[in-house]
From TrEMBL:
Top-rank taxon, per record: Bacteria
UniProt name for this protein: DNA-3-methyladenine glycosylase I
UniProt-listed InterPro entries: Adenine_glyco, DNA-3mA_glycosylase, DNA_glycosylase, Tag
Species of the source: Devosia albogilva
Length: 205
């Protein structure tokens, strides 16, 4: 689990790619309550469907450019002309359904914000209780944990509200990345750091 480039023990999935290791060390699993970042992650997890996260991560800067920094209001105003323009952009994943889902999900997010005050207040309602988390935090166990009761509940509610590309596996990846759970494996140097951040976090709503 120790990376060959330094002596820090990491989750095995971080590998040796510098970009991936930076994402693992500084972003993944650290709790997020900012609506823009949460919306961005919902969208990018949708784009990841059927692909690897490193593919999305390498294109993230371009995604941010063409989706206006993932401003929820601006993305919600995008239309069919924007869809056609983005389908010609080689810097992103050119998938009509995923592009249209991002625009749709922005509009649905505005509805969630009106109802709950923020996207964060809505999302964090689905944080699983400690007793519902697995005791085994080995790499093999975490790797096998593709979805949970909490991610299935979030997925079901999002789809009921009209969101797209938000299946239970996608929702669990979102929950892992945004710190609703701490799935850094035992022995990873980030695990205790992330847990401390989660303990100090003032849950929204």
């Amino acid at each position: 689990m120790t990376n060959q480039h330094d002596s820090l023990p990491r989750c095995p999935w971080a590998g040796d790619d510098t970009l991936y290791r930076h994402y693992h060390d500084h972003e993944w699993g650290r709790p997020v309550v900012d609506d823009t970042r949460l919306f961005e992650k919902i969208c990018l997890e949708g784009f990841q469907s059927g692909l690897s996260w490193i593919t999305i991560l390498r294109k993230r800067d371009r995604f941010r450019e063409i989706f206006h920094g993932f401003s929820i209001e601006r993305v919600a105003r995008m239309d069919e002309r924007d869809v056609e323009r983005l389908l010609a952009d080689p810097g992103i994943i050119r998938h009509r359904g995923k592009i249209e889902a991002t625009i749709n999900n922005a509009a649905r997010t505005l509805e969630v914000q009106r109802e709950f005050g923020s996207l964060a207040a809505y999302v964090w309602r689905f944080e699983p209780k400690p007793e519902h988390r697995p005791d085994d935090l080995s790499w093999q166990a975490i790797r096998a944990l593709a979805q949970t009761d909490a991610s299935r509940a979030l997925s079901k509610d999002l789809r009921k509200r009209g969101f797209a590309f938000v299946g239970p596996t996608t929702c669990y990846a979102f929950m892992q990345a945004m710190g609703l759970v701490n799935d850094h494996v035992e022995g990873c140097f980030c695990r205790d750091e992330v847990e401390a951040e989660r303990q100090k976090l003032a849950r929204p709503g």
